[in-house]
Design brief:
By secondary structure, the chain is an all-alpha fold. 69% of the residues lie in helices and 0% in strands. The protein has six helices and no strands. The N and C termini lie far apart (74 Å). 12% of the residues are buried.
Length: 121
Amino acid sequence: MQTSKQVWDALHTRFSSPSRSRIAPLRRQLQTVTQGNWSCSEFMEEAKNPVDQLVAVGKTTDDQDLISFLLGGLRLAFTPFITTIKFACQDKDLSFDDFLAELLSFETLIEAQHNLTPDQH
């Protein structure tokens, strides 16, 4: 390259384009995020990182895909929730906001049941 403008343009093109090498690892990260010992809020925050990075390079994630990835990463205690959501979404799509509200509500139910004393079971 002969001019600083050519160098600048080349750098701009190289680092601002949403290349496959930048997008693929972010998608994989999103597809493989797992809840582990995190609360649902912490789990959502962890999943938000690759989603935000994908948006930054011009690649949005469809709500249904995002919900599917997140369902796959939930702990076993959420199996009834997963089954219910999959059944409910057979005929219609669920918005991410509605999904999140239902997930947090189910988590509250699990916590309430866990906090019951043995006499209250």
